[in-house]
Amino acid sequence: MDIVELTAMEMKENLEKKRISARDIVEAHIDRIEKVEEELNAFITISKEEALKSADRIDQKVRNGEKLGPLAGIPIGIKDNIVTKDIRTTCGSKMLENFVPPYESTVVEKIRKGDGIILGKTNMDEFAMGSSTETSYFGPTKNPIDSQRVPGGSSGGSAAAVKAREVAIALGSDTGGSIRQPASFCGVVGIKPTYGLVSRYGLVSLANTLDQIGVLGRNVIDATLMLKAIVGYDEKDSTSIDMELIDYIEVLSENIKGIKIGVPKEYMDLEMDKRVKEQVFKAIKTFEDIGAIVEDISLPQMEYGLATYYIVSTAEISSNMARFDGIRYGYRAENYETLDELYMNTRSEAFGEEVKRRIMVGTYSLSRDYSEQYYKKAVKVRTLIKEDFDKAFEKYDVILSPTSPNLPFKLGEKLDDPLAMYKTDLFTVPVNLAGICSISVPCGYVEGLPVGLQIIGNRFEESKILKVARAFEKHVSLGGENIGL
Amino acid sequence: MTNTKIFCSCTNEFGGEANTHCCPVCLGLPGALPVLNKSVLEYGIKAGIAFNSKIANRTKMDRKHYFYPDLVKGYQISQDDIPLCSGGYVEIELEEGTKKIGLTRIHIEEDTGKSIHTEEGDSLIDYNRAGVPLIEIVTEPDMNTPEEARLFLEKLRSTLKYIEVSDCKMEEGSLRCDININVVNTETGEKTNITELKNLNSFSGAVKAMEYEEKRHISLLEEGKNTQRETRRWDEVKSETIIMREKGEVGDYRYAVDGDILPIEIGDKWIEEIRDSLPELPHAKKQRFIEEYDIPEYDAGVLTQSKELADFYEETVKYTDDPKQVSNWIMGDVLRRINDEELQIEDLKFKPKDLAQLLELINQGKISNNIGKKVLRTMFETGDSPEKIVKDEGLIQISDEGELKKIIEKILSENEQSIIDYRNGKDRALGYLVGQVMKTTRGKANPQMVNQMIRDMIE
Amino acid sequence: MVSIDYIRYISEICKIKFTDDELEDFIQQFTGIIEYVDKLKEVNTEGVVPTYFVNSNTQPLREDVIRDGLSKEDVIRNAPEEEYGYFKLLNVMD
User: How far is A377 from chain C (nearest CA, A)?
Assistant: First the structure.
């Protein structure tokens, strides 16, 4: 069998049944990486030796008849802004080019305990700021479907690695769409969990009240398998939620007949590629065929989502980036004669343009002269956006929209126009502002390019969006691309 | 004085090899997140209760942004507009009566690392202190003389030590103060610009700095000039205040809510529990001493200035019948030696029981008062019990009439002139004769008996 | 149009350096962004409470128990320059 073509779930089952070994799995994926990685550039660091060691350890457990963890033998990619102990963690930036963390992030700890195998750290937009993985200090990642195009961002490396079969599942982070949009651009499944469901301890903070670690997989089942393994209260993350854990795998097979789906007219009225809109309307029809009830709804403040997001997130970014000063770790400028020069030179030499831009915008909107007008205003509009969702979810189970208004664009196409780049997150940012959950599933192809459908659920209602996504995936066969159908 | 730092579980212990009390959180490593120490909150609330402040039922932590190498995250987690405690006051005892010094607020925050500078021209930074919990207390401008400020600091320190929130050692940095000072001409209403005094290392330094500034401000006004708005420090060697260089831009701190720390809820029930757990505060203790031990207000004030001293006093009184006598001895000989040698009560080698025993020996007439003081000095040095010291050094008072008579007769026979003087009305001669007896017996004779016996014999 | 002086001031306080050319390009893009986010002015936020936290949970309090931290070697591991276990830099501090 061609191991890399198996789903993660199948790899695990075959391992448990002793049909293949963990080493077989890892070696197959390392071969695959060697074939495609040079062109693709989805990884910043590949941890071949550690992966083989982990594989051998798991094979020993199999031989001993020991119980295996939920991710046994699955080759996993970790976005490079999630700290991995003793494995270089760069956040896609020159600032942390040689940073080797002395501690482990909680999610990676869970993966290791669950017998998952970490193959490497995936490429990303620098410090997660971007929507195309083009701002990475280590060069852009290409879209596996069309190498002239971007894979989306900022978790572009993770999405591409999953699509290209370099790994079976990957972790990403989502602050304004950074998992969902690349999932949409690469034709894979991406989940952004409810804020607080997954521990942020070890995630290099971009915006503390918006960030969540999430999952990318080839199909809904694989992604759910990983999600289940990483959720849970962590005392090291005060913002994580202490609540009863749900077996998400079990709910996947539930029927969605009669489920109420809302389609926000403000979303569908926003500027987007007509072909994307067409695919999404087709998807909506599919849901009606499955037996769901689809209705138009209104989310009146949605048009202010992007502006609100940019002020709130850049304010938090400017604060979180202040610790990068070249004193305790990371890049330090060689030439400085005053303290000011140390800071100025270090930060200006090691941060890319987009990072500098966002730090400046954030500092501006928090500065004494403007905080009232920008930051304090934006946090109030955030309340209104959150309330729009709260109201909608009183009547509806899930909300649908396109994941991105664009098809994957060409490399270099939007680099000169930051605002145009930001607008590719139009549909995803309100979800982070409200702190609710969302999944992107492939819903069709336009001239060979994938379109993603976003299914949004109320906070802590992952079960609903997962089963809706699964039902959709089962129903729509996309030329064999969506395995697990 | 908590066990751990404010946002992580690293030890709060002073000292230690550089960079050995650190973790990802207090080092500000990327991805690390703060978790609030319950005790820090509790201690802040204790301080608020002790100073009669209002405790917030809901508060939050904010980020104060500035760049400095000892500040690991490029921001300090502190509190901006919703402090843990607001209002309150500290009472100080002036000659005219009690004065209330108002407090504006009390809040909690984290400390920074420390740097040292080498001769080669490098800075070396140690982050052991990064993340150590601090409470900041801000006063209303209610103090009108350096003396009032000093009394305020004394009261503040003793209260905080009483409730075991801090050991308040300025030399170790566990108590720091910044002082804003200016003067007002009460006739013309002219005010000087405020001077900020920082980097004060001791109480005495702070007081001297204030006195110096007061004079400086006044003399400038008298010359028709004014002070600059600036920051100064006290130079102990030169005995003057010196302008400090501005430490980087102190402009816009861009205070913003810290998104990693959720709103902090403090229920009234918890506040009451903490209130009940507080030990008796200095003021209440002083009143109780006055009533329970029937000692004057002055005595009670001195004895309650520190919890350790008050406890020592009470423990001693348990074994005696005369609280006033104990008070006299403690306020006198004991405190004098403690202050001279800058000792702490904890350092004393003898126990309250020992002091009680000493007083008992005196009251029983076994030794005289003066011998008692001598014994006390030895107790300070060796920690031996008074009984042992008296025995070892053979200090038992001579109260045997027969023995005394022999000695007195000898002295009288050698000092005929004094006898004549006394009979001629010179009372001082009696004192001289008693003194000679005391000298011969090296202080061991019972002075009252000697006095009486000599009078009986020569009158 | 955003004031150049204010932008220079902002770059001072967040410690980011721009050459004069870079500054010109930057100001253009920056102005575009600010103009876009300015549309928030249209929203009526009278009486609206700001959202800083999306969930309703409150801060958990940690017990005051000492736990092992990092070894000195781990603390210093990524230091650009170190000496005797301290982080080292040229003496540019006051």
Answer: 7
DSSP string spanning A398-417? EEEEES-SSPPPBTTTTTT-
Can A54 be counted among the known catalytic residues?
Answer: no
Contact (CB<8Å) C30/A378 = no
How close, in Å, is residue C11 to chain B by CA atoms?
A: 13
B245, with CB counted inside 10 A (0-12, 13-18, 19+), is exposed
Place of tokens 């899930």: A398
The tens digit of pLDDT for each residue in C45-61 reads: 999 999 999 999 999 99
Question: Would you call A445 an interface residue with chain C, using a CB distance cutoff of 8 Å?
Answer: no
Position with higher pLDDT, A415 vs A178: A178
- For residue A115, how far is the Cα from the chain centroid? 22
Mark whether A253 is an active-site residue. no
Q: Model pTM?
A: 0.88
Q: Crossing angle, helix B146-162 and helix B38-50, to 10 degrees?
A: 130
Active-site entry in A12, A21, A47, A79: A79
Q: Torsion-angle region of residue B182: left (phi > 0), alpha (psi -120 to 50) or beta?
A: beta
CB-count burial class (<10 Å; 0-12, 13-18, 19+) for C77: middle
Amino acid at A419: L
Shortest Cα–Cα distance, A327 to chain C (Å): 7
Are B311 and B285 in contact by the 8 Å Cβ rule? The answer is no
How distant, in Å, are the alpha carbons of A316, C6, C9, C18 from that of A368?
Answer: 15, 12, 12, 22
A301-339 pLDDT, tens per residue? 999 999 999 999 999 999 999 999 999 999 999 999 999
CATH for C4-41? 1.10.20
Cβ neighbour number for residue B318 with a 10 Å cutoff = 11
C65–B9: do the CB atoms touch at under 8 Å? yes
